[in-house]
Amino acid sequence: MTKIAVMGAGSWGTTVAKVIADGGHEVLLWARRQDLAAEINSTGRNGDYLPGIDLSKNLLATADAKAALQDADQIYIAIPSQSLRESLSSWKELIPVGATLVSLMKGLEQSSGKRMSEVIVEVLGCPSDQVAVVSGPNLALEIARRDPAAAVCACEDQARATEVAEVCSNDYFTVFTNQDLVGTELGGVLKNLIAVAVGIVNGLGYGQNTKASIMTRGLTEITNFAIEHGARRRTMFGLAGLGDLIATSESSLSRNFSAGEMLGKGYSKAEVLRRMQQTAEGLSSVEPVLEIADRLGIEMPIVRQVSDVLNGKMKPTEFGKQLNLQDAIEMEF
In terms of DSSP H, where are the helices of the chain? Predict the structure, then answer.
């Protein structure tokens, strides 16, 4: 029997563990806090992150990373992107050789601009085809409620991708596969930036026309960025690109949309970070993405305005009014 570990008991890590357990597999969920692991085991709930959701009896929790990782065949990682390098360094000797490492994270490392799969390979020294990415239009609470949804598992090794997809699929959650790890991973990262932008204009009280314009032009920006890095265009119009963008930009359950909405209402970046109960990965990915875009000569006017609002260089009320039309024309498909 495949031994499955999910590292990270936040809303998404717990939801993925629940999805796998609901499919009939036994799952060991690692929680950083002992009290949270105890709550999950004693009540069958994670009240901090998935209030009111009952978890399967196939799902057990532990605060002992060694116990979670020992003999694991598939290891799903769902921790804040900026803590990945440090966490992996502490887990390195505990991770079984050859285990499939599945990134559930949607951010870039601020210090290096690396994708999470790249950080995993670098820290663990494992082959790149040992790492998979699962991404898509996946708002945790909706999936935890068993709302029908889908995602994509990408891996250079098609057999690993298929194995992960089989483990993660059940009667309400379907996982498809591809081998475009770069596109699938960047789709999950970049759509967060556009979701922040849509949140800003929503916070300003603008209507659907403005939000649709930002979303559509934003899709062009992030697609151009992803293709420059070797992604396939069609990936950006699938679940991991357009699908994720729509879900993240249209729901109050989206942390990035909510963060943008607060910015639009006049809160500073520091105030937004204090008020957010969970990590909004888009806020920490803006600057690494722009640094890469500048280096490669990629125009990203919407993302740049998000940065200007975040850093206090632009008033939220000016957002969207200064987008360069010529840039938009040149970036059109």
Answer: 11-22, 34-43, 65-69, 84-91, 116-124, 140-144, 158-168, 181-203, 208-228, 233-236, 244-249, 255-264, 269-275, 281-296, 301-310, 325-331
